[in-house]
């Protein structure tokens, strides 16, 4: 499944507008209706917590506000922790994989949105082998599927120009890894669906970078405007169409 402003792709199929209230995941049709409420959990890091945007501007919070305002029978829990990663655990910063069991214990959880995979690439120790990250995603998905929970992933947003330290900055190796993982997500076989944050936020003049209006200034974390753009895609992915 791919969600963008101009289209919604589910698995490898393109749904017509008349099927906007449904989605196809691995050849199974699920309907989002008032009779089938559930909970979506977001598992990510500092982008999903709204770091460098004003309080309450993070995209999961904005999606939750929309669900409440429209009385959509779907809850959303943001289980993101800044500076964490899919694969690597450090003191006080458990990996996504280490947190997955607790997320799967959320009552009535139906879907997990896996996001902010950029930290595996840009943070120390760097993981520049895309196959290692892809294998980690597969493991996360397999654990969720064993519990009957679907997994969506967001594509990895651009970080060109980011320079936190000389050892933690944008690199050509990191960019190649980012693009390879995104390509795997977009093929539609790695996860149950994906939300294309990268396509929406990337500067069309230089796709290694965020659009200026979506850049908080550090070239890694989206601005409040960028968070709103991500929220629009999240709403499209998680709620029925008109």
UniProtKB/TrEMBL annotation:
Domain spans labelled SGNH hydrolase-type esterase: 43-229
Taxonomy, superkingdom: Bacteria
Annotated TM spans: none
Record InterPro entries: GDSL_Rv0518-like, SGNH_hydro, SGNH_hydro_sf
Family matches, as Pfam families: Lipase_GDSL_2
PANTHER family found in the cross-reference section: GDSL-LIKE LIPASE/ACYLHYDROLASE, PUTATIVE (AFU_ORTHOLOGUE AFUA_2G00820)-RELATED, GDSL-LIKE LIPASE_ACYLHYDROLASE, PUTATIVE (AFU_ORTHOLOGUE AFUA_2G00820)-RELATED
Protein's UniProt name: SGNH hydrolase-type esterase domain-containing protein
Naturally occurring in which organism (per UniProt): Paractinoplanes toevensis
